[in-house]
Design goal:
310 residues; mainly alpha
Length: 310
């Protein structure tokens, strides 16, 4: 008797295994747009102002849908308030504030390179909190993806690395990476009673509440936002796509495959960012772009196709 799965069953299993990574890839694509928009409005929107309005607008957009879903779930929120507070603090307030602040003092090249270190912080936090292990093949995949990022950033000439320098903005962005690692590990523990939209509404509201006093201090003592059509459109994009849609995809992907495997897809962000820059900014396509993107995808495939971690 032949117990081998039929072709339709094999296709179904293949689609089910691919689905989480499509969600994670879509999140990276939407976040790549966030980097482009964030750079475009950074002169009009100080970092804490941009972070606050990003999540305040996201909460407002979600309120009509999320509030009915939260009806009668006060006990759930009270029981899990510490976890929800940590998610809002780490993934909404701290991480985004560090990134936008760092981009005020560093180049986009350095910023993307710092962001590419996120998988290492996710691995470290997952190891400390959950005891999750990582394989040599997965580390090799991360290294290969990082090589592809370097190819793009250095225009195909890795000798340019000797001119790469760190500055305070790079350190600020790196300081935000542990917060992202904590968020990625903890989001898998979200209460089952809260669906994706309700969860994002709750943590967006918590994050905006945490940020509000610091945004007020920034406005009084440092810089105030200059509102206009460009900055308003940028905030709406970031709130709707880079916050709500991207976090929905990312949270679900992390839930399905775990934080470590999800982290291995983060190098897709600079690949998508390069492609978007070519499309939206009219940048020329060079061989090093294609080689770098191909190397990034090869590294991601190597990491996520490894056997499940212990």
């Amino acid at each position: 008797m032949n117990f081998a799965p039929s072709l339709p069953q094999a296709r179904t299993r293949w689609r089910q295994s691919l689905y989480p990574y499509l969600l994670l890839a879509l999140a990276s694509l939407l976040w790549a747009g966030n980097w482009i928009v964030g750079r475009a409005v950074r002169d009009a929107m100080p970092p804490l102002a941009l972070t606050f309005w990003r999540w305040a607008v996201a909460a407002l957009l979600l309120a009509p849908v999320a509030l009915p879903r939260l009806a009668g779930k006060g006990a759930v929120l009270r029981r899990h308030w510490r976890l929800l507070f940590l998610l809002g603090l780490s993934g909404v307030a701290l991480f985004q504030a560090f990134v936008y602040t760092g981009l005020r003092y560093t180049t986009s090249v350095n910023g993307v390179l710092m962001n590419s270190a996120a998988p290492l912080f996710i691995i470290l936090v997952a190891r400390l909190l959950d005891g999750t292990r990582v394989t040599a093949r997965q580390l090799l995949g991360i290294a290969l993806s990082f090589l592809g990022i370097l190819l793009i950033m250095n225009r195909g000439d890795l000798a340019n690395l000797q001119r790469f320098s760190f500055n305070p903005g790079d350190i600020i962005i790196l300081l935000g990476m542990p917060a992202w690692g904590v968020y990625c590990v903890l989001v898998r523990r979200r209460p089952a009673e809260l669906d994706g939209l309700a969860l994002i509404f709750v943590i967006a509201s918590i994050g905006a509440a945490i940020l509000a006093p610091f945004y007020a201090l920034e406005s009084v003592f440092f810089a105030t936002p200059r509102l206009g059509w460009g900055s308003a459109g940028g905030v709406l994009y970031i709130a709707g796509f880079a916050s709500i849609a991207a976090y929905l995809c990312w949270n679900r992907g992390v839930e399905l495959v775990g934080p470590n495997r999800a982290g291995f897809t983060i190098p897709l962000l600079p690949a998508f960012g390069t492609a978007l820059a070519m499309i939206t900014l009219g940048e020329a396509v060079h061989l090093y772009h294609l080689l770098g993107i191909a190397t990034i995808f090869a590294g991601v495939w190597l990491a996520i196709s490894a056997r499940r971690m212990a």
